[in-house]
Amino acid sequence: MKIVRKDLVPDGPGSVKIIPEEADDMWVAYNLIAEGDTVLAVTVRKVLREAASGGRDAERVKLKLEIKVENIEYDKEGSALRIRGKNILENEHVKIGAFHTLEIEPHRPFVLRKVVWDSLAREVLRQAADPSVSADLAVVLMQEGLAHILLIGKSLTITRSRIETSIPRKHGPAIAGYDKALNKFFDNVLQVVSASFLDVCLISISNMLQTDRFLFLLRAFVRHVDFKVVRCAVIASPGFTKDQFHRHLLLEAERKQLRPIIENKSRILLVHTTSGYKHSLKEVLDAPNVMNMIKDTKAAKEVQALKEFFNMLSNDPDRACYGPKHVEVAHERMAIQTLLITDELFRSSDVETRKKYANLVDSVKDSGGTALIFSSMHVSGEQLTQLTGIAAILRFPLPELEDIEM
């Protein structure tokens, strides 16, 4: 996300001109824009003009409008925001007070004005403009007959495609069609992989039978993995497929003198996963060799914090709590060491609710604790959402929390 101009007072009014540059940025913008804010952007509106014949012709006109936000929708598939509200900017084609819907897409600049830029909004803005916290990964999670193509960004996990194919059994009368069906399945997956715009290639395959199929994977790897941009490339699978492809990759790189692979072979990691389903993303992100390469990114910090929380909940349950009431009591007793909270809680249309959580985050930080805002569109954020969206690791045990209703 590019911040073109920033003119704001902390905990006061101000405006920011923003250019979202990728799908991840649209989710960030969705979390920044709230009911009551104003958004200024170029838009297209159909207007009626007097025709020479005396009738009226409809014409689409490009114009600049500023609307006061009443409703905002996030389109994950289309990577766009639709912001509805009343126009507050004088314009010859649109009256003040008339309703209009702005559509914001990547690379389309807009100006966001708020009456109050609280600490949460400022932190979201800071992280969005900081490339060091990014963790772009492309994940192909597969098992026989099933593949998920996923892109993981700073704040977003996007399912690019789900491919499902019926594979005959490897034994009995159906064995004749097994190789043919499996090869067709791999072809379908490879077409999707080759069509995706990937920053890191995380290739997870199950039971690749023929060596020549590695040729397609090699081409996809060479095409999409830019070691000038990515931290590492990870090859992951159940069984030994990852090892087979890794050997093939390095041999072909030497034979064809593919310098980017030869010079960066230490940054190609192997990870074991148990399945091709989306929940196996946790295994990839939790792998020590992967974590070491992305340890300073936002996504990695969230995964690590959630792991520590669950470990504490299992081994010392009096030093871990979740749910708004329990976390609130723990905070009142200055017990919070690490606060885990999802961005979903800050999208409340109720100003007081948002203010309450903003104050909680500030207070935890002021008392020497750590506050992590999880993206509800990441696998770790989804896990936290299942625990009410808020949890905490405590400095000291609070066994009395068990007696307090959640």
TrEMBL record:
Cellular component aspect of the GO annotation: cytoplasm
UniProt keyword terms in alphabetical order: Cytoplasm, Metal-binding
Needed co-factor(s): a divalent metal cation
GO terms, molecular function: metal ion binding
Any one GO BP annotation for this protein: nuclear-transcribed mRNA catabolic process, non-stop decay
Domain eRF1/Pelota-like N-terminal: 1-130
Transmembrane segments: none
Superkingdom per UniProt: Eukaryota
PANTHER family reported in the protein's UniProt record: PELOTA, PROTEIN PELOTA HOMOLOG
Record's protein name: The messenger RNA surveillance factor Pelota
Species annotation: Capsicum annuum
Gene: CaPELOTA
